[in-house]
Specification:
The complex is a heterodimer of chains A (165) and B (590).
Chain A (H helix, E strand, L loop, with lengths): L7 H4 L2 H5 L1 H15 L23 E6 L2 E2 L6 H5 L5 E7 L6 E9 L8 H5 L5 E3 L14 E2 L1 H4 E3 L4 H9 L2
Parallel strand pairs in A: 1-7
Antiparallel strand pairs in A: 1-2, 1-5, 3-4, 4-6
Chain B lengths: L2 E4 L2 E4 L6 H7 L23 E7 L17 E3 L4 E2 L10 E3 L3 H16 L15 H9 L17 E2 L4 E3 L9 H8 L6 E4 L6 E4 L12 H5 L5 E3 L12 E6 L8 E7 L2 E7 L12 H6 L2 H4 L7 E4 L2 E4 L2 H13 L6 E4 L6 H14 L5 E2 L22 H6 L14 H6 L5 E4 L19 E6 L4 H5 L2 E4 L8 E4 L4 E5 L9 H4 L5 H5 L17 H11 L9 H11 L8 H6 L3 E2 L22
Parallel strand pairs in B: 1-6, 17-18, 17-19, 19-20, 20-21
Antiparallel strand pairs in B: 1-2, 3-4, 3-5, 3-6, 7-8, 8-11, 9-10, 12-13, 13-14, 15-16, 15-21, 22-23, 23-24
Classes of the chains: A alpha+beta (165), B alpha+beta (590).
């Protein structure tokens, strides 16, 4: 039977073995940080504003004239998690088609942004919204009224997307 | 038969055929928009341009060969359209040479100049011929910088069809269909050059009984269905093969299903029955009764009210009530709307268990429904089949003719009916109240189910596997398109994408799973209640027994019926020759 040689305990010198100087050094490091500037953010009182490149909750762009979405169903088709359900219907407007029902199941959504990438109308984009709290499964299924966001609030993302078009 | 050389391969076709016909009969594809095998040749889309040449001949008429012994071909200086060029012995055709592909690319570029980019809105997207060739033949970018020509969208052509003039590529298929097949010559081209559009003659409507076929043959989304418009994308639906139950013609159809609901019915090519067409009546009416107002579970009458119950309770109650009566007091009524399997077992049930010949079958003949193309006066899809598998009265059995009288004099006290359309029972409707017992296999809640004592929830044509026999004695196979709690496992991958992958917490799969059973299964279970064991595991087993017991079905099987698209009664050994079915444009399997 081999007896293990060269263990951690054997390699330590006397000062390391008595442990107290090491504790003092550690406390010193902590004490040092106290006087340095703070990095901590007081979330949720202090909210972080992400960049345009951030992929938060997907939302529908709403213009003054109404929604951009024509319910083509490509987002629903491309969604790898099958989070999106679209039901189209007919309108009298210039764009004949609109989503009578548009639901995103945020429990299924994986924030991949494929829906935004595939959208031919630039109607669904990833927002900066990241604090998503739901108290039930039903509540996590967002309907059209919760998904529609005025275009003014989405300028950062739309500009970001334009760079890569 | 002239032999031609297509892309270096020798093929044969009957004399007088055009190049494109010869090609598709031999399994080759030549790109085209305006050509359709059932319509006259118009030759206006120019998409089928190919290089055509004949062998060079010496002054004495013999074929000139090159050094290697191959014939020297002299090609036409310009490309020819394959749809209007008749084949000749020794003709050489090139469809994949560089100059041919370049010409086809150019045609695509011209067609796309004024075609709007509204695929996201267009119902045709996903099964569009222009999209398909767009991938194969276009550069992906437009060189056209000017404003596209705009034309009125959403023009109503009649009660069923909407026309979008912008999307139209002027192939004239709809015009030729209206003239040649529907015989309602109301469409025409107007204007010229890029302002060409299709218009209806003044104060005319495109409203014939076959109008919706133009939606299928339109290679783009210029013609859309008012009934279907924007209900679903093609890729979200599953399409399963079935037979139209609208009349005894038995048109081959495909059922477009999403979320366990039939959203549309399309014709399926069968050269021996309906070719490429089906009537608007079948298209618009034969799915509503499947989707709506269904009997979703068995019910029994309790204190003058029908209450839902389990299948076992329903069988036990049926056995108890039937045993109270004498066998000759019970009348069994088969159905021309039900597949052969159910009818066969009803006949067997009556004869084996009750030793009764009281088996009847009502007809539904409507002479005003008949026309020259497809519709026939017999409105039941399987009347011939029902008679063939034994829904005929026994030697001294009650017939449907003397049934009202027998009911009046209380000789018949109970009815066992395997379909529910009250319209079928006009002669006996007044006598129904006096009966002691009515057992119905029902699809929908109808006045008949209201009077019934026991209601078995039955699966419709869209939920079963089975066979119909059409007016020409052709046995055709139906496959299920909708899911019930009974056929769930069988359907599996045949379901549409969303239904297939839905979880219980997804709102998009919240369709109600109907607890219905096919007629043959209900009868098998009921026979078990009478201590008669029938060993049928599937509709296939029942059909196998039919083929063994009934000589006219001998030699048939589901596989053969699918392979040959139906077999004629008594002629299972001599099927119609298989041909390559032309499909203009379909959703590609995903």
């Amino acid at each position: 039977m081999n007896i293990t040689k060269n263990t951690e305990a054997e390699r330590m010198n006397f000062w390391e073995k008595i442990y107290i100087p090491e504790i003092a050094r550690g406390l010193g490091l902590t004490l040092n940080q106290v006087f340095k500037p703070k990095f901590t953010r007081q979330y949720p009182e202090e909210v972080w504003e992400p960049e345009g490149s951030y992929r938060g909750r997907p939302v529908l762009v709403k213009e003054e004239t109404g929604e951009r979405c024509v319910a083509c169903g490509l987002c629903s088709r491309v969604c790898p998690a099958l989070a999106i359900e679209v039901q189209a219907s007919e309108t009298e407007k210039d764009k004949e088609r609109y989503p009578v029902k548009f639901e995103i199941n945020m429990l299924r959504c994986i924030f991949c942004g494929f829906c935004e990438e595939v959208c031919p109308e630039e109607a669904i984009v990833m927002s900066k919204d990241y604090h998503l709290v739901f108290q039930s499964q039903e509540e996590a299924i967002l309907s059209k009224d919760k998904l529609e966001v005025p275009i003014a609030k989405l300028q950062d993302r739309l500009e970001f997307l334009r760079q890569y078009r | 038969m002239p032999g031609i050389v297509l892309d270096g391969q020798k093929i044969e076709a009957a004399a007088g055929k055009t190049v494109i016909e010869a090609a598709y009969e031999n399994g080759f594809q030549i790109t085209h928009f305006c050509w359709h095998p059932e319509l006259s040749v118009s030759g206006n889309c120019r998409m089928c341009l190919v290089e055509i040449g004949m062998p060079k001949r010496m002054p004495d008429g013999s074929i000139q060969n090159d050094n290697e012994g191959n014939p020297v071909i002299s090609y036409f200086p310009k490309l020819q359209i394959a749809c209007a060029t008749t084949i000749a012995e020794g003709m050489h055709i090139n469809t994949k040479k560089e100059n041919v592909v370049k010409a086809q690319d150019a045609v695509m570029e011209f067609l796309l100049i004024n075609h709007p980019l509204d695929c996201p809105i267009c119902d045709e997207a996903g099964q569009c011929k222009l999209q398909e060739y767009g991938y194969k033949h276009s550069a992906g970018e437009s060189r056209f910088e000017e404003e596209k020509v705009h034309a009125p969208k959403r023009q109503s052509w009649g009660p069923t069809v909407v026309f979008d003039a912008e999307r139209c590529i002027k192939c004239s298929r709809c015009i030729r269909f209206a003239q040649e097949v529907a015989k309602q010559d109301v469409l025409t081209f107007v204007n010229r050059s890029d302002h060409v559009t299709i218009e209806l003659f003044d104060e005319k409507q495109f409203d014939n009984d076959y109008s919706m076929n133009v939606i299928d043959i339109c290679p783009v989304g210029a013609l859309t269905s008012k009934d279907f418009r924007f209900k679903a994308r093609v890729w979200d639906m599953s399409f399963n093969d079935s037979i139209c139950p609208g009349c005894a013609r038995g048109c081959n159809i495909k059922l477009g299903v999403r979320n366990n609901e039939i959203l549309r019915i399309e014709p399926r090519t069968n050269p021996y029955v309906n070719k490429y067409w089906m009537c608007d009546y079948g298209r618009l009416t034969q799915y509503k009764f499947v989707n709506e107002n269904r009997v979703t579970e068995p019910m029994i009458r309790w204190k003058n009210e029908l209450i839902p119950c389990s299948w076992d309770e329903a069988y036990a109650k049926a056995e108890e009530s039937l045993k109270k009566l004498k066998p000759e007091e019970i009348m069994f009524i088969g159905s021309g709307r039900t597949a052969n399997e159910g009818n066969y077992l009803l006949g067997k049930f009556a004869r084996e268990i009750f030793k009764s010949g009281n088996i009847g079958l009502f007809r539904d003949i409507d002479e005003s429904f008949k026309d020259d193309l497809l519709k026939v006066s017999d409105k039941k899809p399987n009347h011939l089949g029902a008679v063939e598998v034994g829904i005929v009265p026994g030697k001294d059995g009650v017939t449907v003719q003397n049934l009202p009288e027998k009911m009046r004099y209380k000789n018949i006290k109970a009815l066992y009916i395997i379909t529910d359309q009250i319209v079928d029972y006009r002669p006996i409707i007044d006598e129904l109240d006096d009966l002691e017992l009515i057992i119905v296999h029902a699809y929908n809640h109808t006045p008949l189910t209201k009077k019934a004592d026991i209601v078995f929830a039955a699966s419709t044509y869209a939920e079963i596997e089975g066979t119909y026999v059409n007016i020409d004695k052709r046995v055709q196979h139906l496959s299920p398109a909708l899911v019930t709690s009974e056929n769930m496992r069988f359907m599996g991958m045949k379901m549409s994408r969303l239904d297939k992958f839905g979880a219980p917490n997804d709102r998009w799969t919240q369709h109600k799973l109907r607890n219905t059973l096919p007629h043959w299964k209900i009868l098998t279970k009921l026979a078990e209640q009478f201590n008669v064991k029938w060993n049928y595991k599937s509709a296939k087993d029942v059909f196998k027994e039919i083929t063994e017991k009934i000589p006219s079905f001998a030699g048939m099987s589901y596989e053969k019926l699918i392979e040959y698209q139906g077999l004629t009664l008594g002629k299972a050994g001599q099927p119609d020759p298989k041909v390559i079915n032309y499909e203009s444009h379909v959703m590609k399997p995903n």
